[in-house]
Amino acid sequence: MGGHAGGRRGYACTPYMHDHESVGLKEAWARSPNVREMHFVTATFSEDGKLYFAPHANHYMLAKVEDCEIASGEVGGRRGTGASFVFGVDESLFERETEGKKNFVSIYYTEYGDTANAMGEIARVVGKSTRVGSAAHARMGYYCDVPPRLEFPFSDSIMVLEV
Predict the structure, then answer these.
(1) Rounded to whole angstroms, how far apart are CA atoms 157 and 25?
(2) Which among 108, 109, 110, 139 is positioned nearest to 6, based on CA atoms?
(3) DSSP structure class, residue 72
(4) Helix (H, G, I), strand (E, B) or coil at 51
(5) By the 8 A CB rule, do 57 and 82 touch?
């Protein structure tokens, strides 16, 4: 287990295995006042990312949550499912109404040393696209019963985009 996403708003992402435990969590999240939205998503990991997040899955449940600490407790206790993540939003960089429904939630990390300036610059560039509804700076909490081979060095440099 690594990182701490804190008690703020954000996103929880945990493998969906089509088993009893996953279905139970899906039903609990569907009823939870902590969960604002829930989606089934496909995750892709770069070759570099696989070094940090093994084992990982391809099919996840992604929930937009009011309190990341509650979500951390829910995904942190799962066993044998692979890596789960909680992204606690530190700062909303921008938010606006967009036409149509949300199609993507994209989560990236930046390797820049000056995170505040890097996030601001990324937000300015991304903000030019009218399809991006929001951008936020977040911290990542990582939960897995198998310890990572390497500690992910960019947990405090996460960018979340809703497109």
Answers:
(1) 28
(2) 139
(3) H
(4) helix
(5) yes
CA distance 68 to 136: 15
Calpha distance 9→71 (Å, rounded): 10
Which pair of tokens denotes residue 138? 């977040």
The Cβ of residue 106 has, within 10 Å, a number of other Cβ atoms equal to 12
Burial annotation 68-82 (CB, 10 A radius, 16+ → b, else e): bbbbbebbbebeebb
**Comparison of pLDDT for 5 and 149, the residue scoring more:** 149
Contacts of 89 (CB under 8 A, 6+ apart): 8, 9, 10, 11, 136, 137, 138, 160
Task: Report how far apart, in Å, the C-alpha atoms of 48 and of each of 20, 81, 152 are.
Answer: 32, 21, 10
Q: What is the pLDDT of residue 117?
A: 78
pLDDT in tens, 45-97: 888 887 888 777 789 999 999 999 999 999 988 877 788 999 999 888 888 88
Answering whether pTM is above 0.90, one says: no
Distance CA 77, CA 86 (A): 13
Domain ranges of the chain: 10-162
